[in-house]
Amino acid sequence: MWELEAERYDPKPQNFDVQIERQETYLRTKRETFKIKEQKHLEMEMKYISGIHALNLRCSLETCGDWHASGIQWKNLTVRESSDSVFGDYGIEDNSSVPGHPGNHKAANHIRALLDLVADGAFGYAQGMKNELEAERYDPKPQNFDVQIERQETYLRTKRETFKIKEQKHLEMEMKYISGIHALNLRCSLETCGDWHASGIQWKNLTVRESSDSVFGDYGIEDNSSVPGHPGNHKAANHIRALLDLVADGAFGYAQGMKNELICNESYTPEVFSKLLLLKNSPRWLKIKEFIGKEYGVPWLHFLREHGYDR
Asked: Which residues of 138-170 are buried (b: 16+ CB within 10 A; e: fewer)?
């Protein structure tokens, strides 16, 4: 437009100095316009750190971000291109606190990082967006700075406690524990009989399971320090959990005598039945119903009928 349409000075000037001045003004304006366009183009093509990595970096906002910086890998960063997003260069800022990557980098602030995660459908990483990652727990326009600090400290303390609880639950859900025939031959906290073949089985290679792989979660898993050949404290299934694991695996031979010989305490029957019902979607469900029917007889049939699983 500038080159093809019009000169910015009089084509028949009365004064040569006026012509030169006008031409210089035109060229100066053109350079400034070009610089602005170039800057906008660079901003639109900016590479920046985003996602879970950006959530674990400090930013200029008064937001909390995430608290797992030491638990994620920083070698391969989540890098995005601003021109690929409807958000453009919104929320992208300089950041020099990237672990393992010295120097200054472009990184999304916490809100932009969350927007990117939501846009990608990564809702698991964005969970807790409002209450844990983004929102402050104090008045945005406090009349008293001490009140602001006190409220923020209370919020952060609550958040840390919440995180510890979640972390504990996560660890419990991923707990490795001793089960099967080995657990049946250990003492446990229940008033059950368990098995009596401890001296007749090998204790070198224990039956170890992962609690997160089971519908029973961490039910019936407890501390045990009486594992032969394995000093120290261990996580082990109590007798009922060990039997539930055997039944779930279809190891009915090892679970035989479940009611009268291994549990031998009818006060636990309702609890056992309610846990067995969690296996209703198992491909072994018909065989499980048949096996428990042989062990418990009529009470099991009544239980199934009450819960609509007698067919």
From this structure: beeeeeeeeebeeebeebeeebeeeeeeeeeee
Provide long-range contacts, Cβ within 8 A and 24+ apart, for 218-224. 218/172, 218/173, 218/175, 219/275, 220/244, 221/175, 221/177, 222/188, 222/189, 224/178, 224/186, 224/187, 224/188
DSSP, collapsed to helix, strand or coil, labels residue 141 as: coil
Q: Which sequence spans correspond to the domains of the chain?
A: 139-170, 176-306
Average pLDDT of the segment spanning 256-262: 96
Q: How far apart are CA 239 and CA 256, in angstroms?
A: 13
Strand partners of residue 105: 95
Token duo for residue 299:
């009470």
The SS3 assignment for 146 reads helix
How far is Cα 159 from Cα 68, in angstroms, rounded to an integer? 13
* pLDDT 10s digits, 191-226: 999 998 777 889 999 999 999 889 999 999 999 999
Query: How many angstroms from the chain centroid is the CA of residue 144?
Result: 37
SS3 assignment for 40-55: HHHHHCCEEECHHHHH
Token pair 């958040």 is at which residue?
Answer: 159
Residues near 264 by Cβ (< 8 Å), separated by ≥ 6? 192, 193
d(CA 263, CA 256): 11
84 to each of 52, 216, 283, how far by Cα in Å? 18, 44, 46
Query: Angle formed by the axes of helices 269-276 and 239-248, to 10°?
Result: 30
Q: Which two tokens stand for residue 112?
A: 């932009």
Whether the model pTM is above 0.70: no
